[in-house]
């Protein structure tokens, strides 16, 4: 499930809402590192945020991050003890929810990893 098919499945559900999900290559690997049951829960969290409003506040529910992650937001999954870092962008009438990192919430690790990935991620999302 941790491949482009996951995004395709989410995008089919979200099409009527004009929302698209895109995973960076490293975020796909992050997702693949979790067991299948946890992957399903992570995808459900992404789907829920995308459906409820993935834009940054005040337009959506996304709390804006700062510094090098300015323009990004997070999904907190306390029950899974992880964070999902994403960037909402409007492109061609769709709100794209671009996932850069999925990782543990302890010690800010996922934020450091997302910061290391920013340049490569921006190039990937230009394609």
Question: What's a concise summary of this model?
Answer:
The protein is α+β, with helices and mostly antiparallel strands and 127 residues long. The chain is 43% helix and 24% strand. The radius of gyration is 13 Å and the shape is globular.
Write a structural description.
Helix content is 43%, strand content 24%. The mean pLDDT is 90. The longest helix is centred in the last third of the chain and has 18 residues. Strand 3 and strand 4 form a beta hairpin. By secondary structure, it is α+β, with helices and mostly antiparallel strands. Strands 1-4-3-2 form a four-stranded mixed sheet. It is globular and about 35 Å long. It has a single domain, classed as 2-Layer Sandwich (YaeB-like fold), CATH 3.30.2310.20.
Helices and strands in order:
Elements: H1 4-14, E1 19-23, H2 25-32, H3 36-52, E2 73-77, E3 82-91, E4 94-104, H4 109-126
Parallel strand pairs: 1-4
Antiparallel strand pairs: 2-3, 3-4
């Amino acid at each position: 499930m941790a491949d482009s098919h996951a995004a395709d499945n989410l995008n089919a559900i979200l099409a009527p809402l004009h929302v698209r999900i895109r995973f960076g290559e490293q975020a796909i690997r992050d997702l693949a590192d979790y067991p299948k049951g946890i992957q399903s829960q992570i995808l459900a969290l992404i789907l829920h945020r995308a459906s409820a409003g993935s834009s940054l506040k005040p337009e959506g529910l996304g709390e804006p991050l700062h510094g090098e992650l300015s323009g990004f937001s997070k999904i907190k999954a306390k029950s899974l003890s992880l964070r999902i870092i994403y960037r909402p962008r409007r492109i061609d009438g769709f709100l794209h929810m671009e996932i850069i990192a999925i990782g543990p919430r302890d010690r800010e690790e996922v934020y450091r990893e997302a910061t290391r990935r920013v340049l490569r991620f921006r190039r990937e999302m230009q394609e």
